[in-house]
Design brief:
Layout: E1 2-9, H1 26-38, E2 45-46, E3 55-64, H2 71-80, E4 86-94, E5 106-115, E6 128-130, H3 136-143, E7 148-151, E8 166-177, E9 180-187, H4 194-206, H5 214-221, E10 236-242
Parallel strand pairs: 3-10, 5-6
Antiparallel strand pairs: 1-3, 1-4, 2-3, 5-9, 5-10, 7-8, 8-9
Length: 260
């Protein structure tokens, strides 16, 4: 049988999602924990791979098993064998042809910037601290040039292995909430470092170092060197994976937000 699971994790201590020869990925820890419950080795396939240091509140994955356990048994068994920074939040039986990655129709990320003079001792692993004042309105206006289907080569990592740089950004907003500047973006899929590179470019606009029109110019250039610096990974979280309603998967929780 095939099971789908929801996962949240703090990516601070991991080399990203994927199992790796050097370092530890979230995938490895999940497979080890679930294998203990299943009493056999298994492979976990996720909706979207996250980079080192990136978090998730609503990652989705699937795995196959011939072991019979209740949903509660899988849930409690997995979590009892997982480290404190990874948790399975739900388990659901799915059709044998369900695929966490290929059936997903969109992914959403949130990037958090703590914008104040003093750094945070509590949020150092969950936000990018920028002490220079940011104009969230300018950032939002600039971001609207990135909506729709475009070639996002200017915002992809040099080592990105995606076959095409074309992506369809359905929504992209930037807003301020007290000391926090929050960037929310939804697209059919993302290139490696795409959200971080967009955030770094918009931050330069927010500080006034670049004009609002610069985001559109960078996109048109298709040149990564024309864009801003990549924002650090700790501010980024995968907060939603969208699937067709017919699959009846549990809804994603609301994105985590911190008090200002």
């Amino acid at each position: 049988m095939r099971l789908a699971i929801g996962i949240e994790y703090d990516g601070t201590g991991y080399n990203g999602w994927q199992r790796q020869e050097s370092g530890v990925g979230v995938q490895q820890r999940l497979e080890e924990a679930l294998a203990k419950v299943a009493d056999h080795d298994l492979e976990v396939v996720c909706a979207g791979r996250t980079d080192a240091g990136v978090h998730a509140t609503a990652q989705v994955a699937h795995f196959d098993t011939n072991s019979q356990r209740s949903a509660r048994g899988w849930l409690l068994g997995a979590n009892s064998n997982l480290p404190d920074d990874i948790a399975v939040t739900w388990v659901s039986a799915v059709e044998d042809d369900f695929h966490a990655r290929f059936d997903a129709t969109a992914r959403s990320y949130r990037y958090r910037i703590l914008n104040r003079l003093v750094r945070s001792a509590l949020h150092r692993h969950r936000a990018w601290w920028l002490h220079r004042p940011l104009d969230a309105g300018r950032m939002h206006d600039a971001a609207q040039a990135l909506l729709g289907e475009h070639n996002f080569s200017a915002f992809r990592a040099a080592g990105c292995q995606a076959a095409t740089a074309n992506r369809n950004v359905r929504s992209l907003s930037v807003r301020r909430d007290g000391d926090w500047v929050l960037l929310d973006v939804t697209a059919n899929a993302f290139l490696q470092h795409m959200v971080r590179n967009i955030t770094g470019t918009l931050a330069a606009i927010g500080t006034g170092d670049a004009p609002v029109e610069w985001a559109a110019e960078v996109l048109e250039s298709r040149d990564r060197k024309a864009a801003g610096v990549a924002a650090p990974p700790q501010g980024l979280s995968l907060v939603h994976v969208e699937y067709p309603e017919a699959l009846r998967l549990p809804p994603a929780p609301e994105p985590v937000h911190f008090a200002a």
